[in-house]
Amino acid sequence: MGFKYTIGCETTGVSAVDPFHVLQAFKDLADQEATLLLICKRNEKSDFSARNYIDKNGLEDRVTLLQYYDRNEYYGSRQSCRIWIGKSTPVSEVSADVLRENIRRFQGERIEISDGKKHVLFFTGFHPYKEEGQGVYMRLWLDCLKKTGHDVHLVYYQHDLKLTPAEARSRAARDFPYYHEIPVISPLVGINEDGLNIDLDDWCGKAALKGVEPLVDQFDFDFCFVVYPFFTAVFMVLPPETRNILVTPDSFTDRNRKMLEQGFSMAQWVSITRGGEQLACLRADMIVSIKEEEARYFRKLVGDKREVITVFSLSPLVDFKRKPLSGKLRIGYFASDTYVNRECVLEFLKCRSHSKFLSANSSVVLAGGFSEGLSGDADEPVLRDDNIEIRGRLEDLADLYRESDVIINPDKGGTGLKIKTLEPMYFGMPVVSTLAGAGGLNSGSRFHQAAEIRELIPLLEEVLRDPGLLEELSRCSREITERLNRESLAGISRVLGCGTGDLDPGHIPADQAGFGASALRQGLGRSGSDTGRDKGSPLVSVVLPFFNAEENLEAAVSSVTGHDYRNLELILVDDASSDDSLRIAKTLAEKDSRIRILGHSENMGAGPARNTGAFSACGDYLFFLDSDDILRRRALELLLRTAAEEDVGLVIGSCNQVDEQGNYSDYDRDRDSGRENCFGLINGTEALRRSLNVEEGSFLPVRPWGMLIDLNLYRDSGLTFPSGEYEDLSVIPFLYKYAGQVVYLKDIVVTYRIREGSVTQSPLSLEKVSRYGSLWDLISRRIEEFGVEDYRRDFKIFHVGHLLWLLNHGISDKVVLDAAADLIQGKMRLDTGASSGDQNLKYMLDYISNILRVGKAEGDFALWGKFVSGLGDDAVVSFIRHRMHELGLSTRFK
Predict the structure, then answer these.
(1) ∠674-868-880 over CA atoms, to 5°?
(2) d(CA 798, CA 721)
(3) What is the pTM of this model?
(4) Closest CA to 102 of 20, 39, 25, 50
(5) Which class for 341: exposed (0-12), middle (13-18), buried (19 or more C-beta within 10 A)?
(6) What are the tens digits of pLDDT across the range 370-415?
């Protein structure tokens, strides 16, 4: 029989479409002219056998079943299908009626049944919103992809997390609804030695691949962009139908050795072998280089097996008016913080100091991150020149250009296109550069071809003697950037296979180029400048992490989506659930466009899941909810109204609780009973004290859920949740302090569900005691960071009391008791002693007595001594004497 139509689909077991739905729709289609190609990634938890279904329903002759575990090797199979069902196709679209309609419409043009979106995976180990050259180039591509209608999944593998400002990550989360962060776990990441190479995949740990896999399972990606060759292992988890693009702003073959040969004092950059770079290029379908010299090298590596494209940079030409030269020549230099930039500029300043003419008739302004690092070179005589000004970081690069006559780049080596040469050119600034500093520009001007740094001096002297050269250099900058924009647009068109008319950046007025550092650094769209929200109705980002929550998840989600306040987004974060939770979440998301689903490739705990959601939040306010909680009706409206009326960034609501039998009871009211003064407006420092339960009559909940937080306030605090249990203890008191003022309401906003087996209901184990010690280490550091050292003793009392309370949940393991006692006697020791007036003290002593009784350690005097270590107050001694007398241990107490 000759078949006319081939219907194809790839399912993963976690995507919206599963094999059963596809097979059922195909069976019901009953079209004898159609065949089905079904590609299935095996799901270890599924009990549905596609082969059984095919045999049972007599479909063997018309269905081709291809199954795989990890790597889909069925290259080209998607292109062979005339009708293709995408992974992100809504289940409602996978039916016999829909297939029948598409067959009726089929006129030889391939049809895709999907959500109509073009998905792109963009993977980087360096954050694209950092203000440096590689960030500029990445934002070029991100802007182009968004402008050409692609839904970009920006994946940040946190290689440079410590160097990335929180605001950069926050802005990326606002700009990209699909924003993901993958923590670095492999200890090899970042390791390299002076002058040596690393293996190609040393810096791409397994966590990076595992973090990408859930996205690949869920979405059909038309493209995958990977920035830098040493992250190309990511390509290995993409299906063969995805077009893999390696974007490499540098060549890394023996890079460190080349840097040493160029005269740098050290070379500790990422550097790989020629074979490693060749393998990276062959993993890609296309290589995008930033300048033609490197593109030629990549072509030698791959021959005719891969296409190599050159795309420089792309930015509006700024209509910028320079000040005329008056008096001294004003020389500007801007660069990011690297030892290479520091060494180059110091060499330039030394050469300048040897020219009496230039020294006497010029001034220098040094700006950017590198200039902050010059403090270590304070002994350099050249920096004592009164005509050298060190500015540090700038809010707007245009400020430097307004007061400069010429911009220099004294680079003496390295690779890649030099953004610090290019960006002043987009402003039409005169530029004098070494040949290395003008790499990739293909400039014919002798003012861009100095072979060595010292050769910049006579060029600048010439400009001083003939100021008309400044206008000539300005025109040269315009010509270079206009040409680069044209060439880059052509290259982008080849990569994306589409027209680029909407991408032509054209010209912009100077007053529109000042958002951030410069027009080039902000990219084409400057997409973070305006969220387009209705400021009269604040958007609330509700973050709900879940792990194996299939019993309660739907109720928690419904309490949000059915809420009276509608202007919200619900971010569900799957912490690698192994039950049916993710399927439930996806079903709910199909019904409400306000729901987004993010996920972890491995279980990391509620804290990191909250971090993932918070970084992705786009709202004005943040609200955490747990998967076993219920949001009360009108709660968000109440919290928002209170925040506006009291002009505060943090409002705490109360909660009650319900057990598994449906019985409701008080929760906060049990804790703040008789403490009427604890409600209302509270100073931040006082809120911290109340959260530690320092004094009689003071109380404030210590939990992340049930409070409304200004999102900018939360991000500015820099607080994140650690992994492990009781993570909220290391965040909430400090958040109260940072907020300055908070409001505590008596109104119930959340109902908390008591579950057997939950973290708070489970006894301590040896591993939990160890993690509690790590938690205290973090709290101890934050005490110093947030300037609350005066309350260290109160923190210790609170946390020793909390640890003792946890032990009261049922303990019989003597090893666990010893570990907890050692922790209290060691790093949590109350060296200053506790006062008999401390609110927590009476609880602590009762806990100790009960713990030792239940743990059958009443006669273990050494263990007693560890638990009360540092409490040495008369009241404590009296308590111990009384207890020991009751236990018949008085004679052993001295």
Answers:
(1) 80
(2) 19
(3) 0.61
(4) 25
(5) buried
(6) 776 675 565 678 888 888 988 877 777 888 898 899 999 999 875 5
